[in-house]
Description:
This protein is α/β, with parallel strands linked by helices. The protein has a single domain, classed as Rossmann fold (3-Layer(aba) Sandwich), CATH 3.40.50. It is 32% helix and 29% strand. It has helices spanning 48-55, 78-87, 104-114, 121-130, 146-158, 176-192, 204-207; strands spanning 4-17, 20-33, 37-41, 63-68, 71-72, 89-93, 164-168, 196-200, 212-217, 220-223. The strands form 2 sheets. A 6-stranded mixed beta sheet has the order 6-7-8-3-9-10, sandwiched between helices. A 4-stranded antiparallel beta sheet has the order 2-1-4-5, with helices on one face. Helix 3 packs parallel to helix 5 and helix 5 packs parallel to helix 6. The longest helix is centred in the last third of the chain and has 17 residues, at 176-192. The chain is globular, with a radius of gyration of 17 Å.
Amino acid sequence: MEKIIVKTISLSKHYRVGTQTVIALDRIDFEVKEREFVSIIGKSGCGKSTLLHMIGGLDRPTSGAVIVDDMDLSKMNEEQLALFRRRKAGFIFQQYNLIPDLNVYDNITFPLELDGAVVDKEFIQELVRTLHIADKLDMFPSMLSGGEQQRVAIARALATKPAILLADEPTGNLDTSASHDVIGLLKVIAEKYQQTLIMVTHDLDIAQMADRTVQLQDGKIMRGK
């Protein structure tokens, strides 16, 4: 039986905007199996990124629970959530968020250094070869193309060997060719290292590369539970 690695239970998130209450997520029940690649689609403002941020421990729910790798994030304090984000979740964003003063290798290993963890150099070398950036390790982010920077961001997200990979519009700054190249590599990487991958995207072509697609509308799952 396949393990459920991510589960949300009646997950809701409300925001106050002036005197109005905005319902970003409305009692969502959602599951992702271990090693599954799930894409989340929907119009802007439907709650896609909010759901991803809840799963990654970047934001707290108004009500309900988020269970990741048998851990209930809603019961964690800030310090525990910070450890969870560093060790259990790998994040890939539209903005690559690379450190401009660090070269590619140091950008990739930065999360490990931050956590005081030992760098698995053999694993890092295997990662950069798979992502076709082994010849870029001494370069700085400004010397790379957008697609290359996103590959570095993917390597950095995987460096800690996280339980889940969370990608928020990872191809938003790339052209069509680079987008398909990056997602193709991301899919290969996820399969190779048996990673669970959850990706938010507005691009239906990109979304169809996933094992399963979930559609959100007005904070609710419309299809793909």
